[in-house]
Amino acid sequence: MKAVRIHAYGGPEQLRYEDIDLAPPGPGEALVRHRAIGVNFADLHNREGRYPVPSLPHVLGGEAAGVVEALGPGTEGLRVGDRVAYAAGGPKFAPGSYAEARLFPADRLIPLPDEIDDVTAAALFTKGLTAQYLIRSVFPVGPGQTILVHAAAGGVGLLLCQWAAHLGARVIGVVSTPEKAAVARANGCRHVILAGDPDIPGRIRSLTAGEGVPVVYDSVGHDTFELSLDCLKPRGLMVSFGTASGKVPPLDLFTLNRKGSLSVTSAAFAWFVQSREELRARAADVIDAVLSGVVKVHVHSQVPLAEAAEAHRALESRRTIGATVLIP
């Protein structure tokens, strides 16, 4: 079958569309024939070597939707022909979705309702589960709160902003362009600030009667971390869940004391879907949010699997709004 692999770490030019072999499913495994494949920033980090893959060469990608084509011994609750999706995260689940099919643990597959199509499903679960645990568990968002979301027009950002607004929060979004600002406003942001603004903390203070916000959700990393701390109210929480602009700089712990006894957490996907039960519960919440119209999944572009390198270039340039999906 065809797949996109890297043989060495580096830029998008390292992505090779080539033939690979796939073994039959082993105990507890399912063979999933992909219909659509999600693209996430973690894929870029895998390609660059910031998140090393287990070995080289290796297929990239951690998210897809498709159909169960075969089942190994000891699998329960699935049948050949079932529509499913998955979101792999953390060291237990190696990348491998940039392919026409793959083997995956059957108990980590998410059954899909008929109302959610394959392209939407491929764009949904990594980003949707991330948004879910960020606003339900890391910092429970509720009515009357004002929150700050960086990359508010990105894949996670759009879902997070819509969902938080539905829960009654006033959402302030930061985006990189006026075009993205319009999208953010249409998807839950009460106020939008351009990333090039020279005084984002000052803007936040002016919107919060000088107080600051109780939480900042930051997936940008290097370029925004320190200014995000300055946007927080005393005892506020900085949630760092991505490093699109590079690694977060070193932090003197007593800086948090000086700025108001702040807290910082790095909320990684894998730690919030550790068990099958937790995965299924969070996925059910995400599916309900989509089916009830609380959130709408925005797919920016559908790109042939063979052109995955172009999808990576677009994501790196920050030209994209919402999600990008590869079609095998």
UniProtKB/TrEMBL annotation:
Any one GO molecular-function label of the UniProt entry: NADPH binding
Matching Gene3D superfamilies: Medium-chain alcohol dehydrogenases, catalytic domain (3.90.180.10), NAD(P)-binding Rossmann-like Domain (3.40.50.720)
UniProt cross-references to InterPro entries, sorted A to Z: ADH-like_C, ADH-like_N, ER, GroES-like_sf, NAD(P)-bd_dom_sf, QOR-like
Pfam families in alphabetical order: ADH_N (PF08240), ADH_zinc_N (PF00107)
SUPFAM superfamilies: GroES-like, NAD(P)-binding Rossmann-fold domains
Domain Enoyl reductase (ER): start-end pairs: 10-326
Keyword NADP assigned: yes
Keyword Nucleus set for record: no
GO cellular component entries: cytosol
CDD domains tied to this protein: QOR2
Keywords, alphabetical: NADP, Oxidoreductase
Protein name in UniProt: Quinone oxidoreductase
Source species of the chain: Prosthecodimorpha hirschii
